[in-house]
Design goal:
alpha/beta; Rossmann fold; Cobalt-precorrin-4 Transmethylase, domain 1; seven-stranded mixed sheet; six-stranded parallel sheet; 32% helix; elongated
Length: 662
Amino acid sequence: MYKICVFAGTTEGRKLVEFLSAQDLFVTACVATEYGETLLKPAKNLHVSARRLTKEEMIQMLSDTRYDLVIDATHPYAADVTNNIESACGLTGTEYLRLLREDSSLSSDAVFVSDIAAAVDFLNSTEGTILLTTGSKELLKYTGIEDFTNRVYARVLPVNSSLEACQKAGLLPAHIIAIQGPFSEEMNIAMLKSISAKYLVTKDGGTTGGFDEKVKAAQKTKTQLVVIGRPPQKEGSSFSEVIEILCKRFSCVNRPDVTVVGIGPGNRDAMTGEVRKAITHADCLIGASRMLKAVGSVGQAVYDTISPDKIADFILNHPEYRHFTVVMSGDTGFFSGTKKLLPLLDRCEVKVLPGISSLAYFSAKLGISYEEINVISLHGREQNIALDIKRNFRTFVLVGGQDGVNALCHTLIQSGLEQVKIYIGERLSYSDEKITTGTAKELADGKHDPLSVVLVENAFPDAVITHGLPDEEFQRGSGKEGIVPMTKNEVRSVSLSKLKLTERAICWDVGAGTGSVAIEMALKARKGWVYAIEQKESALKLLQDNKERFGLKNLTVVGGRAPEALEDLPTPTHVFIGGSSGNMKEIIGNLLTKNPSVRIVATAISLETITELNACMKEFAFTETEVVSMNVARARKLGEYHLMTGQNPIYIFTMQNGGKKE
């Protein structure tokens, strides 16, 4: 087993130890204090040395245990420690690798001084309270500040050695701020305000060391920042480069931690506590720009994207970050990108945290229960929205785009639903949240925010849920080919019953005519799709008109002759054949090739078609077959009497589960 020693006196060092502890390696972590040990997660393959080591003790340790690599992840200001580690490695013949902390990218109007002595000289030329954030080890050097006891406050670690150093320097107990970081911008602001600080003394610990948060806090509180210059760093490698070296040299596996969180409607106050914690402790936040601005902290690494593929690629190719948090709007299980992302993260340790959905939030604002609300999303989806609203008392709609609300209102007006009641929720949870109520007609031409949701109330749902629509519901017509045929109400009802459609069925209507069967298929298979195939030009226009008349988004009109027109269509689960033009055998053969279990219902009036279907039933081995002869008579008025007039008899064939005989 390979042996690696990490001098882990920094945040990066602790992350590196955490990474190595998850590998098949023996790891020694050297920290200066027992408190430093408490910050490391225990692991079976991890040994911790929790005391300051002299150069001689380092040499002895490296001689006793022959390490394959020593990684120096100490603070950039700990120049003496770095020199001792490098020297001990050289004398014992141990490979040495320096992990370099990245410089802060933020500029500031700070006063930069070369060392503590220069800082003391500068501060002696000033007046006002001073907050020291450079640790306890060198507090005695600051005692040269005039009126030190009254002017100076020190922020140190909450350990005995730090408190003893403060007492030795003569700091008053009330001037000791003993607390463990990391410190957010808000925490820094609160501390500076609590002591009315005029000066904040710090070292440039880089982004990881919280320097950016100090800069922002100083700017917002008008506190003068005094920065003690960083010693020149020795040559070394960045965190990501170190991880890459370890993966290549020691076959380490990079399995980053990923937390996918729902941030609710958007306001931070509307997030759960565990979601806020996951965001705060993330090494890198990923999500849409709007959400990153709403939840991210100053200096926190971010990646702006909503593409699942790009998110997964970024996580797997940036080992410098160990803990990722992917922020999703609303709830992770409610029309969220989480569903597509999770299968791409199989090489990660993944946790999913829910948020408050816009449905739950909006319903609470309106004071209604949402347990029986029909939920629809129009974000990149085709949906028979008018039909859904006709069928349901309440429908919640996630609208998309700049004019999403307006488009919805106009669709409802075109479908005869101009008087339904609409509630529009704009920028929910934000300070400029707005809720508007009116009818579809009243709100159709208003200006609405793109971040909107809609609740529609239809007080009198009247959509017919049984099949067999009246023939008068469909537009009829004729062209140069003659009258466009239509499967009549009674025959259509029985045929649809025989088809046994499912909600997600993929349906074909071959020889669709006016489209009466295709229309009813689309109404039943609401989450599926219907393809209406027709070769006559006059019928194609009628098909399109009837599709628009019923507002169906899940119906595609296909022009062409079967079976040629069927070749490129998606595999069907259910097929109705209303016309075959003499190609019945070829059509059924095509269907069975695409899906041997396809359910087929075909109708026949002429003796020739009946003969064709009988021949197909003999030639193809179906496990289920049925033939129904149907005779329908309709009343017609003759004077004061009603006489029953017989219609053409029709045969309905049902076939399923077969393959061609050898």
